[in-house]
Design goal:
- This protein is of the alpha/beta class.
- It is built from 15 helices and 14 strands.
- An eight-stranded mixed β-sheet has the order 3-4-2-1-5-6-7-8, sandwiched between helices. The protein has a six-stranded parallel β-sheet with strand order 11-10-9-12-13-14, sandwiched between helices.
- Helix 7 crosses helix 13.
- 41% of the residues are buried.
């Protein structure tokens, strides 16, 4: 059976990272709309190259090429060959420029949706600081090609949309569809939790601000039983610099590290935390590109009070002192003071958690986001899923 839809992503799926959660819900929206579809993603040695799940066929690119750019290029070449063999495609939804190069061919008959969660020209220098100016310019040119050539662009925050408009992309072509949260997340019981802890969960990139959180936590030593739980979506090796910082600040004995937890176990940790901290830094990546952190939506959905940093993308989700708290970025002492206040006044904090849940129910549930995507698909295609 040939399907009418394809979702392509140069990302490992499934995985413990937020990107995989986003892929799950975005592809779900596409496949629900068309009733079937192809999912073309990255794999690894633990995942099968091919899976058939009811009306969804999953194809994984499993070539473990160490060089990132070479792997991305090879992924695109194989995706292009895959698309050539599928003649009935009506809509292709993709989330990266490497997929876009294969998808946005002049002779295509299908419509395209480019999901811009990150701009590689901004993102990659944080991961590979020694990229040449020539390579970065080629990446910018490829971004521009994908942005100009796609039929529709979606992005998860107004901050990203503003940046895309500055790149001369017509604003009417761009629609913001934020991340969201499931209102009925399953939580597996965890027996070894401390009685009193705050939590950070997600990746450990520099711009996430985990170092600022550890410094802020060092200012809370008088809370003798307070623990900081860090649930990393990365492997343990990524935490080494943060562990060294914690040791230097003499707080390592009060930090609990967890790695790549199953979602149900992670959500139990989040649900029972006193606070969930999202200490994003004031960087070009966060300001010019923007973000839409799943950790914030999921914490709010679980009624866990959120303390985040006062950046434009965060203000799209949290209104300070109404459904969470915002502090100036890169100021560990200020973050520490707000955490202290929230711990000292638990009723106040819990009320913010309740209002955070209402915010998700009213504006940021995954069913709402799926409906918004379906509206886009219906405008792009003649297909009627009703």
């Amino acid at each position: 059976m040939e399907h009418k839809s394809l979702y392509a992503a140069f990302d490992l799926y499934p995985s413990s990272k937020g990107a995989a959660t986003h892929i799950h819900y975005m592809s779900k929206a596409l496949f629900e709309y068309f009733g079937n579809g192809y999912l073309y993603v990255l794999g690894n040695e633990r995942l099968p190259i091919y899976q058939n799940e009811e009306n969804i066929e999953i194809f994984r690119f499993n070539e473990l090429i160490p060089n990132y750019l070479l792997r991305a290029e090879t992924f695109g070449i194989q995706l292009a060959a895959f698309i050539l063999e599928r003649k009935n495609l009506e809509l292709v939804h993709f989330r990266d420029i490497w997929s876009g190069l294969a998808i946005l061919v002049p002779e295509r008959k299908y419509k395209t949706v480019f999901e811009v969660n990150a701009l590689m020209s901004i993102e990659l220098p944080y991961r590979y600081p020694f990229l040449s100016k020539q390579t970065l310019q080629k990446i910018k040119d490829l971004e521009h090609f994908c942005l100009q050539s796609s039929n529709q662009i979606i992005c998860p925050s107004n901050s990203i949309k503003v940046n895309l408009i500055k790149l001369k992309i017509p604003k009417e072509k761009i629609q913001v569809i934020s991340n969201g949260a499931d209102l009925d997340m399953e939580c597996a019981e965890v027996l070894d939790k401390p009685a009193n802890y705050i939590i950070y969960f997600g990746a450990l990139q520099h711009w996430q601000g985990v170092d600022d959180l550890i410094k802020a936590f060092a200012g809370l030593k008088d809370f003798e039983d307070l623990k900081l739980v860090i649930c990393s979506s990365n492997r343990p090796s990524y935490s080494k610099p943060y562990r060294k910082l914690a040791e230097k600040l003499n707080v390592e004995q009060n930090i609990i590290w967890k790695y790549q937890l199953p979602k149900e176990e992670l959500y139990n940790w989040v649900q029972h935390a006193k606070l969930s901290i999202a200490p994003m830094k004031d960087t070009e990546r966060n300001l010019l590109q923007g973000f839409s952190p799943l950790k914030v939506f999921e914490s709010m959905a679980l009624k866990t009070p959120v303390v985040g940093t006062d950046l434009p993308s965060m203000r799209e989700i949290i209104t300070d002192k109404e459904n969470g708290r915002l502090v100036r970025p890169d100021r560990p002492a200020e973050l520490s003071r707000v955490i202290r206040f929230m711990l000292d006044y638990p009723d106040y904090a819990n009320n913010l958690g309740i209002k955070g849940r209402l915010t998700v129910e009213n504006n940021f549930s995954w069913p709402q986001k799926i409906k918004e995507l379906h509206d886009i698909y219906s405008k792009l295609t003649k297909f009627d899923n009703q």
